């Protein structure tokens, strides 16, 4: 959480993600941005955020990209495990296994894969923050520039994985996604 009293644990989470991405052999990018959040005292404050991006480049075709993403900051009102902790664990384990399979040649990677952890999910602040979330800055200022004519195959956004959703059409893949590797 970006507010001062939580800054130490927030920065430790950031360092841990970077260390994990490095240990997996991902190319790391850090995207910084500035946004606004609302505190418990209903005060709007400016904060700096950092989206952490890990890239696993395709061995053949660099013209297609798929993305896995989740938030790594937490709200002040939710249990951190249910909020983003479980989702972050899933993303990190997915990246680790993906890279392990690639290094062991158990996977022929024909698509560049981006693993991104978004900072500052402004809708989690009370009331919802007036600023844009890290995911907005990632798309508008990083991803669109990165794609630069490449084919974007889709994104798996991993949120609230410790909870189950019984609603129809919440777990479906779009046509062709089963074939992406």
Automatic annotation (TrEMBL):
Transmembrane regions: none
Peptidase M28 domain location: 51-119
Needed cofactors: Zn(2+)
GO biological process: proteolysis
GO-annotated molecular function: metalloexopeptidase activity
One Pfam family recorded for the sequence: Peptidase_M28
InterPro entries per record: M28_fam (IPR045175), Peptidase_M28 (IPR007484)
Family: Belongs to the peptidase M28 family. M28B subfamily.
Name under which the protein is recorded: Peptidase M28 domain-containing protein
Species in which this protein is naturally found: Armadillidium nasatum
Lineage: Eukaryota, Metazoa, Ecdysozoa, Arthropoda, Crustacea
């Amino acid at each position: 959480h970006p507010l001062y009293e939580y800054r130490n644990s927030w920065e430790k989470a950031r360092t841990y993600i970077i260390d994990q991405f490095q240990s997996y052999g991902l190319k790391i990018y850090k995207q910084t941005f500035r946004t606004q959040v609302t505190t418990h005292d209903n005060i709007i404050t400016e904060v700096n955020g950092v989206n952490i991006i890990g890239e696993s480049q395709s061995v053949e075709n660099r013209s297609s990209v798929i993305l896995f993403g989740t938030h790594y900051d937490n709200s002040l009102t939710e249990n951190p495990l249910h909020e983003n902790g479980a989702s972050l664990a899933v993303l990190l384990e997915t990246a680790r296994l993906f890279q392990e399979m690639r290094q062991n040649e158990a996977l022929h990677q024909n698509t560049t894969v981006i693993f991104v952890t978004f900072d500052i999910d402004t809708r989690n602040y009370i009331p919802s923050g007036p600023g844009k979330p890290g995911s907005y800055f990632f798309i508008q200022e990083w991803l669109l520039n990165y794609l630069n004519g490449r084919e974007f195959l889709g994104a798996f956004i991993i949120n609230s994985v410790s909870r189950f959703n019984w609603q129809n059409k919440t777990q479906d893949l779009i046509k062709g996604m089963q074939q992406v590797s």
